[in-house]
Amino acid sequence: MSTSAFPYGTMGAAYYGPAGILVLTTGGSNFTDAGVGVWSGWEFTTDGGLDEIGPGVLDRTAKVSGEYYSLEPETGAGDFFEVRCASLNSGVWNTQAATVGTWVALTSNRAWFENVVAMAAPSSADCSGNFELGRAGRSTAQVGPIELTASANN
């Protein structure tokens, strides 16, 4: 296991944790759109990836530095992991894969994000949470916290 840090620009630093987990220490998602609506957030995928969501709900941007599994993409990698938003630093997730503090298996893609719809006046939604990853079925953090933030502005 290597614990050396690798800088990845706005994605923050990453390191290799136990069981081949490559972990971000911070990450920010920030989108502004004057259209119908805008989304901003994060999705842990079943193949070991961590994708940025936005500005549209169907827009996903894979981050090379954002995989949680070092051999990503690997079909079925999520079967061996679970994730949770352990705590909030600020705000409330508009949409979340599980309530804060609840472990959820990565057998399906799991997303946490903010969204705002088009309005006559500008609006925004912001959230910052600390995420943890662990081996499936153990409900114990092996890596984390990973601070992920989202900001949606319309």
Describe what this molecule looks like in 3D.
The protein has no helices and 13 strands. The protein has strands spanning 6-7, 13-16, 22-24, 26-32, 37-44, 50-53, 60-62, 81-91, 95-96, 104-105, 110-117, 124-135, 143-153. The strands form 3 sheets. It has a 5-stranded mixed beta sheet with strand order 4-13-12-8-10, with no helix packed on it. Residues 1-25 have low confidence and may be disordered.
How would the global form be characterised? Answer: globular
Query: In whole angstroms, how far apart are the ends?
Result: 43 Å
Radius of gyration: 15 Å
Strand content: over 45%
Give me the number of helical elements.
Answer: 0
Tally the beta strands.
Answer: 13
Amount of helix: under 10%
Structural class: mainly beta
Low-pLDDT regions = 1-25
Largest sheet: 5 strands, mixed
TL;DR?
The chain is mainly β and 154 residues long. The protein has strands at residues 6-7, 13-16, 22-24, 26-32, 37-44, 50-53, 60-62, 81-91, 95-96, 104-105, 110-117, 124-135, 143-153.
Describe this protein with a few key phrases.
single chain, 154 residues, mainly beta, five-stranded mixed β-sheet, five-stranded antiparallel β-sheet, 13 strands, globular
Topology:
Blueprint: E1 6-7, E2 13-16, E3 22-24, E4 26-32, E5 37-44, E6 50-53, E7 60-62, E8 81-91, E9 95-96, E10 104-105, E11 110-117, E12 124-135, E13 143-153
